Amino acid sequence: MDTFFKISERNSSVGNEVIGGLTTFLAMSYIIAVNPQMLVAAGMPFEAALTATCIGAAIMTIAMGLIANRPVALASGMGINAIVAYTLCLGGVNVDWRVAMAIVMLEGVVIFILVACGLRKAVMDAIPASLRHAIGIGIGLFIAFIGLKGGGVIVSSESTLLTLGDLSSPVAIVSLVAIAIAVILQVLNVKGGLLISIIAATIVGIPLGVTPLPTSWNFGLDFSALAAPFQTIPGTDTMAIVQVFLQPALLLFVFSLLMSDFFDTMGTVVAVGQRGEFADKDGNVEDIQPILMVDSAAAAVGGFCGASSITTFVESASGAAAGARTGLSNIVVGLLFVVFAFFAPVIGMVSSSATCGALVVVGYLMLSDVAHIDWENIEHAFPAFACIMGIPMTYSITNGIGFGFISYVVIMLVTGRVKEVKPLMWVASLAFLLMFILA
């Protein structure tokens, strides 16, 4: 096992990998509760949605561990599942959930082909170092923002958009406890500190009524969503995937989802790579091709399983920060997904307040790259700034990257430095511009 996963070679240990895997799983476990609820809104049976979410995440996370040997976990992506439920199925498009899954699967197939041709890696190589750093920094702010918002420390406001939450509320108290424990343990360099903060905050939340206690148990699996794109739509004799080609307008959603998946993963891998020590100071990720191949296949598998698009999770950075360096941590995460396909109510006890501390600390750790950006050089600094601010402020990694790309090529164009822009940066920037126009 040590030889296969290169545990000693990467200065890790089995204990570090297990703790890292547990930390990642707890940080991303909310998807077990959230994704099925969204898919139920789209018309899918709850048990089928739960099974697809857990089993799909388990298969692709383990595959990433065995093939790429990096601590990058995968599950149904937030954002894309919202598009599936509230735009494709419930919005003006109003298609059957099986058709939505066919769109997701086709998007995954296209991305896989692009990766196999080397295009996705080539685009990453074309990104200036300053923007690579900016992506990681922006995601760090995004992660911290997610933690603070979910923990009630910051809340929405009609007058100021955001404001400080009620810190005397039970939800905020648990969040503050989680932050305090996570920071203190980080200062003391305690192994597994982030995991400890999650567990401790979950326990503290029980008497405060923040930690939801299980009310029912589900021990069964439902694979009725499997092969959703190839199922016949009720009331017709047409397979779901055929419907996509019968309605050409749906192919625009294939492009839209493709852009989100394509660049979200690029940003996430850089961010996790920097925390997991497999990305250099310029944001170049070591052996990135197998990571991108597995992630691209995951999108197609997600659509096939009926789980929405499965993608790399930025919460993997919490596991990397906890010590995970190899794919062994993925095996831990994957097995836990299988287990909690039966015991979802247990994971339901981990509230967003409990994970707040871990996400805030990870966000802090990821901001260290700000020192690597040359802020005196506006040609590179402003696009980096646009990217950093765009990610958390639009609640989208893809949007932030798009702002950075477009501003970079525009600045280089007006300053007469067009030759410094690699061709794929022009292509990517035009694609982003098209995406923004069509959105």
Short overview:
By secondary structure, the protein is mostly helical. Helices cover 66% and strands 3% of the residues.
Notes on the protein architecture:
The structure is a single chain. The chain has 439 residues and is mostly helical. The protein has one domain (2-129, 215-348, 366-438). It contains 20 helices and four strands. It has helices at residues 2-5, 14-28, 30-41, 46-67, 80-89, 97-116, 119-126, 129-150, 170-187, 193-208, 240-246, 251-275, 288-305, 316-321, 328-342, 344-347, 352-366, 378-394, 397-414, 423-438; strands at residues 74-76, 154-157, 161-164, 310-312. Strands 1-4 form a two-stranded antiparallel sheet. It has a two-stranded antiparallel sheet with strand order 2-3. β2 and β3 (161-164) form a beta hairpin. α3 packs parallel to α5 and α5 (80-89) packs across α6 (97-116). The longest helix is centred in the middle third of the chain and has 25 residues, at 251-275. GO terms for molecular function: purine nucleobase transmembrane transporter activity. It is found in: Cell membrane. One of its GO terms (cellular component) is plasma membrane.
Distinctive features:
transmembrane, transmembrane helix, mainly alpha, 3% strand, Azg-like_bact_archaea, two-stranded antiparallel sheet, 439 residues, cell membrane, two-stranded antiparallel ribbon, 66% helix, Azg-like
